[in-house]
Amino acid sequence: MEKTYYPKGNVAGEWYLVDATGKSLGRLATKIAELLVGKHRPDFTPGVVLGDHVVVVNAEKISVSPTRVAEKKYYRHSGYPGGLHEVSYTRQLERHPERIIQFAVRGMLPKNRLTERYLSNLKVYAGPDHPHQGQDPQPLDLE
Question: Rounded distance, CA 79 to CA 89, Å?
Answer without folding.
Answer: 22
